Each structure stands twice: as C-alpha cells, then as structure tokens.
Amino acid sequence: MPPRTFIDAIRETLADEMRRDPTVIVLGEDVGKKGGVFRATDGLWAEFGDDRVIDTPLTESMIVGTSIGAALNGLRPVCEIQFADFIFPAFNQIVSEAARMRYRSNNGYGVPMTIRAPYGGGVHGALYHSQSVEAFFTHVPGLKVVVPSTPHDARGLLRSSIRDPDPVLFFEHKKMYRSVRGDVPDTDYTVPLGKAAITHPGTQVTVVAYGLMAHYALEAADRVAEDGISAEVVDLRTLRPLDTETLLDSVRKTGKCLIVYEDNRFGGYGAEVAAIVAEEAFDYLDGPVTRIAGPEVPGVPYNHVLEEWFMVNPEKIAEGIRTLAAY
Amino acid sequence: MASAPPQIDRETQLRMYRIMVDCRTFEERAQELFFEGLVRGTTHLGIGQEAVAAGVAAAMRNDDYTFCTYRGHNHTLARGVPMAPIFAELFGRATGLMGGKGGSMHLTSVKHGAMGSYAIVGAHLPIALGAAWSAQYRKSGQVAVCFFGDGTTNIGAFHEALNMAAVWKAPVVFFCENNQYMEYTPIREVTAVEHPAADRAAAYGLDSILVDGNDVEVVHRVAKTAIDRARAGDGPSLIEAVTYRHGGHSRADPGKYRPDDEVAAWKARDPVPAYRQQLLAQGVGETELEAIDGDAREAVAAAEAEARPAPEPAADVLETQVWTDGGSAWRN
Fold first, then answer.
1. CA angle A271, A274, A276 (to 5 degrees)
2. Using the beta-carbon criterion (under 8 Å), do A105 and B98 form an inter-chain contact?
3. ipTM, interface predicted TM-score of the complex
4. How far apart are alpha carbons B88 and A92 in whole angstroms?
5. Distance from CA of B97 to the nearest CA of A (A)
6. Domains along the sequence of chain A with CATH
7. Is A129 an annotated catalytic residue?
8. B16-54 per-position pLDDT tens digit
9. CB proximity A109 to B under 8 Å
10. Smallest Cα–Cα separation from A299: which of A104, A133, A92?
11. How far is the C-alpha of A70 from the C-alpha of A65, rounded, in Å?
12. Sheet harboring B65-69: ordered strands across?
C-alpha cells in the first residue's frame, strides 16, 4: 500500500474495526454525513449508515455519557470530541464515571470506549482550538491515554484502543493529519498500549517526546548529530500506562534526560516523567532532568509570531540537547 | 364518567407490598446501625418513597436496567439484590456488594440489572440513555429506567439526555422522584416552573406526566405504560412522581428546614400503611400481610447477622479492579 497520511490511517482503521466488529459504533459532532470537520470519519456513514455513525448535538457530556452507557451494555463506542479544547464539558463523565466504573463495581462492569480528539497548536487555531489536554487525564487512574505520532502507530494503537476493555483517550495532533505520511502494513497488526519506541538510537542524551513533538525531537536529533552529539529519541506513544522500562533503560544508558511536550510546562505530563527519572535513575544521571515545554500562558495565541513563540520547535529542542550534552 | 383503571393482579399487588415492606424494614434498621456506628460516612434514606421503587420494579423485566442515585437502597433491593451483601457493603466488608469499595451511596449489582447508584447528580442520565441506545441497536428488548431527584432537573445533563433520548426514540424511562427538597432547599425556590420535570417535558416533545408517588398502584400503572411503550419502540417517557422523604437529606439531618405541618401531612400519607389498608379493604387477609411483614423482619435480621461478622477487606484489595485483569498497573 502506498504511504498513508496520519488521517488516512485513522479513518481506515475506524472503517476496518467497524467491518470487523458490529459492536463498534462511531458518534460525535458532524461525524456522519459531513465526515468530521477534519474528515477523520469520511465515508463511514455511507458504508455503515445511521445506526452506527451518529451525528450528535453539541453536547460533549452527553456524547461521552451515552458512550459509557452503551459500553456498559455491549457496545464499543468510538466517540469524537471535535477539538480537544471542547472536552471539558465531558470532564465529569470521563473522570468521575468512565475511569471509575470498573473500580466502583469491583469489576462488575467496565467501559470499552475510545474517545478520539484532535489536539495541539501550530495551525492558527488560537485560544480554543489548539490546546494540549493530556495532563488532565494522565492524572487519573482508570484511564488510558494514547498519543501516536506516525500513521503506522496510529493504526496499530487505534486498533488496540478500540479492542481494549477499558476507556482510552486517543489524542491526535491536528497539525500531523495531512503533513505526516508513512508506510502502513496492510495487515491486522496492533501496537500494544503501554509500549514506547526508540525512534532514534543514541548515546549521550535521552529525548522523551510524544505526538508532534516526537517528530520535532527527531529533527532536533538530526541537527545535533551535525555537531557530533548523539541523542536518543524515545517516543512514548502511550502516556498511561507508561513504559517506564524503555524510558529508564535509555536514561540509565545516556545519563541525561530532556523531556519535550507542547502543553504548558507547569504540572504538565513531562513533570511526571521527570519525577520518575529522578526517583529511579538518580544514580545514573550526569545532568539535570530538563524540560522543554509550552510557556506559562493559558492558551495558544492567534498571531503567527506569538504562536511560533508559544510552540516548541526543532531548534528549541536542539538547543536543549546541546546544553544538556555540554553539562 | 372516567372508567376505573384496570385492576392489578393479586400476585403483583402482594409483590409490590413485599418490596415496600422489605425496603422500609431494611432502611429503618440501616438507620439504627448508622447511629450505632456500624454504617460509617453517610447514608441517604428513601423512607417514605418506597412506592416508587416498588411500583416501577414490579413493571420491569429481569434483564431491564436500573440506574439510580445515592438514595438508592430501595431501588437496589427492589431489583432483588439480596440484603446481606447490601448490609455488608454498608458496613464496608469484604462480602459487600462491591467488596467494600462503594458503601451506601454506590450500590451496584450487574447481574440484577442494578447498574449503579450515582453520587454525581445528573451524571447517570446520559449513561442510562447509552445503555438504552445499545439495547435499541442490538435489539435486545431491554429497557433502562433512570431514577433521579427533583434537584437533577436543573443540571445540564438532564436536558442533554432528554433531548437525545427523544430524538433517538430510545427505550429509556426517566423517572423523577420529586421529594420536593433539593438537599436542604425547597425545589420550588430554585426552579422556574412548578413541576420541575413534568413542566419541561414539552421541550422534548414528550407528554407531561405528573403522578402521586405515594400511591404504589398509580406508580405501577404509569411505569408499566412507559416501559411497555419503550419496549415497543415508541420512545422514552419522562415521569414526575411527587413524594416525600420522611427524614432529612442524609445521615443525622433532622430536616428541620421543613414545616412541621408539612411533614405531618406527608407522614399521614405514608405509602406503606396506606397500601396495607388498601389491600385489606380489597379482601387480602390480615394474616397474609402479617406474614409478609414478619418475613421482612426475619430477612433483615438474618442479613444483618450474616453481614456483622464478615471480615474487613484485606488492605491490598485497595489496588485491585482498576483494569479488567483485576490489577491497577500504570507502568511496566
């Protein structure tokens, strides 16, 4: 099969899973006839019809709550939150209900539901169409959080998410939808949840990233290679459960750890990674665990100069690697 | 002249009476055990509201689903969940319905169709709708019944779920138990319409249904009509049943924010003795009702005796049942 864009991989996987399993249902705002505002569900309505591809009102709480109820009663809903920024009306359903169902029922029932949401900046979406929201959910036991970076992983991880018996949040960086292409095997492969990938082996600095930042980290690793610095890029792929084994093995080898995330630095996901590295690889560290992340403002600004200033980019990461390598 | 409503068969009548007496006897004992310190934290009693739980449960099929609130002992008992594991759950014991993880406010028994008592007001309306939507899609013939209080009618999830249920013609019955107090505040003081659920039905294209929630036969008839309608594919219903809780909102709340004469008037309409009188008047023997009353006392005593000596859960149970494999791993 020819190389696929990131969004091709999402759309084709949804269609495959719906063909494979009649209990897989897609719902969300404009996901049906319109095919989604990003076209991630394009063609599904034509193939599977009104019963399985459902246009909902603008009610995120109802979209997720209804998906939970359907999941309790034999379906595997895949719901789309049109932009990750819009997920907060559903926060209660996700955090208070979906995450807790299995625990509160002492394993009487669970919620095999996948919530897909495009996240991230760099597309002039401004204050309410650009956020990274993963840290709100990686905080919560009972939720799984996935952030793929390649068409290959998007396909394999989306399959695993839909087939998983517990709730999964699946965040797709919207800037990658059509800008990222890659080879995708034409097989029913899966990528297991909770397994990171070393996408660029190296020896001097470990760079931990996910989503769009995993691409920027690779670009940065290439740039610093020209300076003779060997960086190892760990693409986490799943944020919860976390593949601490791959993370810690890499840091124990390099002795240096740089964590990259687009979300605001303070209390972001990288803070947890830093804490784990500090607690469990302290004796191997040869430099401060360092973060490159978004600035201390409550939203991604609109103007392109301001947005560029907000966004982490390959050069900022490369500079961080150089500084850490020289420490 | 309006024709008399169809007679409810004797077996169903006695079943409803039995459920009401079981609920009342169980909850009165639960309250004593709360004051004794055996039930910790808090507990929300439905004493005075048993006619709703009994009347609806007697109209349900075994594979139908119930979603209810933190005031959920009656609804859980009404679905046939045994008393001993409920007591054990109230005591926080290993043999409790959820192994001690939930307590009074979160009773759940999937095999009885008791799909949870929800403590975040309104959250379970979309969830009940989802279960009903699945039943519709899978053609399982199930109906979901969702109980909630008057306070729920002012939260967004109520409107979101009602609207979508009507659009989908989902097999769900939304049942508002209007006990007239939203925790400690009279519902009328914070609601723009007189009947918080019934007056809003028109907004979803549904009939306005307002009934006496203290008359178990009235409740049963209206529930049966709504459940049959849902099962037949004719869509959801929103029912408001006006009732009253004899006690306060929770635990030791004496409910003093309510006028004495109002409380007295509603206690005079206590649904349990009222139904007893009604059945006697219809020729049911005193001894038959006394036997049901005695069975309830014995069942509650036996359940308490079984639950009292049950062990506390082992501490390591804490980190179990987060995932389907029974574990709670967040890392490798």
1. 110
2. yes
3. 0.95
4. 29
5. 8
6. 4-182 (3.40.50.970), 197-325 (3.40.50.920)
7. yes
8. 999 999 999 999 999 999 999 999 988 999 999 999 999
9. yes
10. A133
11. 9
12. B114-118, B65-69, B144-149, B172-178, B237-242, B209-212
State how far the alpha carbon of B108 is from the alpha carbons of A55, A201, B78, in Å. Answer: 31, 50, 13
Task: Determine if residue A35 is left, alpha or beta; phi over 0 gives left, psi from -120 to 50 gives alpha, anything else beta.
Answer: left
pLDDT confidence of residue B5: 74
Residue B11, token pair as written in the block: 């077996």
Q: Are B54 and B19 in contact (CB under 8 A)?
A: yes
Q: Which residue of B has its CA nearest to A240?
A: B330
3-state SS assignment for residue A14: helix
Cα separation, A248 vs A245, whole angstroms: 5
CA-atom Rg of chain B in angstroms: 20
Token pair recorded at residue B195:
């009947």
Place of tokens 């690697």: A321
Q: What is the DSSP string of A37-98?
A: TTSTTTTHHHHH-TTTEEE--S-HHHHHHHHHHHHHTT-EEEEE-SSGGGGGGGHHIIIIIG
Q: Which SS3 state, helix, strand or coil, does residue B299 take?
A: helix
Tokens in use for A176? 């990658």
Residues 6+ apart with CB under 8 A from A157: A146, A148, A170, A190, A191, A193, A237, A238
Mutation site for B-interface testing, chosen from A101, A104, A115, A250 by largest number of B Cβ within 10 Å = A104
Mutation site for A-interface testing, chosen from B133, B136, B169, B319 by largest number of A Cβ within 10 Å:
B133
B1 band by pLDDT with thresholds 50, 70 and 90:
very low
Residue with tokens 């007239």: B180
Residue pair A136/A176 in contact (Cβ under 8 Å)? The answer is: no
Instruction: Give the integer Cα–Cα distance in Å for B76 and B230.
Output: 22
Q: Which residues of B touch A65 (CB under 8 A)?
A: 123, 125-127, 129-130, 157, 160-161
Q: Shortest CB distance from A104 goes to which of B106, B131, B324?
A: B106
Write down all domains in chain B, each with its CATH number in brackets: 10-304 (3.40.50.970)
Alpha-helix runs per DSSP H in B139-176: 156-168
Query: Is residue B19 classed exposed, middle or buried when 0-12, 13-18 and 19+ CB atoms within 10 A define those classes?
Result: buried
Contacts of A145 (CB under 8 A, 6+ apart): A134, A137, A138, A168, A169, A171, A238, A239, A240
- A64 in Cβ contact with A79 (< 8 Å): yes
- CB distance A73–B142 less than 8 Å? yes
A295 touches chain B (CB under 8 A): no
Tens digit of each residue's pLDDT (9 = 90 or more) over B244-275:
999 999 987 889 999 999 999 999 999 999 99
> Who contacts B110 (Cβ-Cβ below 8 Å, separation ≥6)?
A105, A108, A109
Instruction: Tell me the two tokens of residue B58.
Output: 């007697």
Q: What pTM does this model have?
A: 0.96
What's the rounded Cα separation, in Å, for the pair A95 and B323?
15
